[in-house]
TrEMBL record:
GO terms for molecular function: oxidoreductase activity, acting on the aldehyde or oxo group of donors, NAD or NADP as acceptor. Pfam families: Aldedh (PF00171). It comes from the Bacteria. This is Acyl-CoA reductase-like NAD-dependent aldehyde dehydrogenase. Gene3D superfamilies: Aldehyde Dehydrogenase, Chain A, domain 1 (3.40.605.10), Aldehyde Dehydrogenase, Chain A, domain 2 (3.40.309.10). It comes from Leifsonia shinshuensis. The active site is at residue 243.
Amino acid sequence: MTDVRDLLDRVSAPDGDGRPIHDPATGEVIGNAPEATVAELDAAIARARAAQPAWEALGHEARSAALNAAADAVDARAEELARLLSREQGKPLNGPNARFEVGACSAWLRTNAALRLEPEVLVDDGETHAELHYRAVGVVGAIGPWNWPLMIAVWQLAPALRMGNTVVVKPSEYTPLSVLALVDVLNEALPADALIAVSGGRDVGARLASHPDIDKVMFTGSTATGRRIIESSAGNLARLTLELGGNDAGIVLPGTDATAIAQDLFWGAFINTGQTCAALKRLYVHDSVYDEVVEALAEVAKATPMGNGLDEDNVLGPLQNRQQFDIVNRLVEDAKTHGARIVTGGSPATELGELFYPITLVADIADGVALVDEEQFGPALPIIRYTDVEDAIASANRLDVGLGGSVWGPDRDEARRIAARIESGTVWINSHGGVHPMIPFGGVKGSGYGVEFGVEGLKAVAVPRVING
Ligand code: NAD
């Protein structure tokens, strides 16, 4: 079996020092994460600032080559990274989980290496010749969450490095070791101080966002923290990309074949055991197919194994932390008091471990109940019956978040017409949550602003410079 000891030795705090990090499946301590002080963060930002001009001056070709070499380094350590991620985050090795996440890191690095952002000719009419060029912003602060810690770190750092920025990464305090290990591996291929990881608590995140020498903040996390980062940007005028929480709705139209969509619906909702920003979090199903859809989802749930992520059979894992476990438990208990019907699950799976909660399908529930209105970020899905599609569209749009959404039905044109009326950054048809390194991704309303991925993602970590004349 691949050992993660070497990676842990490279990044852990000395014995007796740092913050103990627990395996959410077993409660075991897997290592100690260094806890940086604000002074250490300041020193890291100064180093990143000093390294930036030379990194930008290398030019696009050399930086692309470095990103490809960094992807090679990730591939060479993929199994170790996946195992460390599984132990720290809880997600299984198999399924759309730890090995998949490490693979996505390499794919995003390579795609960013291959992207081209050429100067645009704006006006060329004989009198005026104006071009729009893009250059690096400077030093980018990358602040991430605990659900997809490696992939989201790469989503932030790959385009930023590609454009010639240097980057200071602040991982979530729940999953620092795997991100520190990833950055250490990436740094096998990058020049000194182009990419620095600083592990610490919320105080370190707050300082990074408000630091006068940070030019851009890439943030993925909760809407509440996003608001604080916006406030701090009044001080340092940092540009922001904010990927915040969501409460994605899915609408299943009449005539849909429930068994044909059940697998995709299930994974749209329960990828990473529901701990995914753009997961399906409220499902609106037409009365004519409601019972079949609930039944088909329950069949998939029964056949999908949950447990310790290092067991090759499992594809669902624990909640990553007690706080998230308590949110899911509270929302399901509250739904019960409102008369909702528990189809599968419905109470903690303590036989598997303290932080396990089973796939919980909650039927006969309505808008206004907290499980529908609040982001559960876990394995509990409310399934709401509707009779008029106009009501389902109004329900999808009634909340103040808008990251993703989906429409499911046999008629693609009809589904697309409805999709055009959903207020979210992405609407999928007959699928939910798939992302692609060339397709911009971002939210509207309380889900944040700015997009990541593709050429638009490069522009988001660049500043325009017009050459006129
Ligand atoms: P969180 O906001 O609690 O923490 C995210 C990060 O922000 C952590 O690294 C934390 O240390 C840091 N932080 C805390 N206070 C800060 C401050 N004042 N200034 C700067 N940084 C600070 O979020 P979380 O609980 O880790 O993640 C879960 C949330 O993230 C969910 O709401 C989920 O929907 C959202 N999320 C969104 C996306 C997306 O792409 N839109 C992706 C994943 C998660």
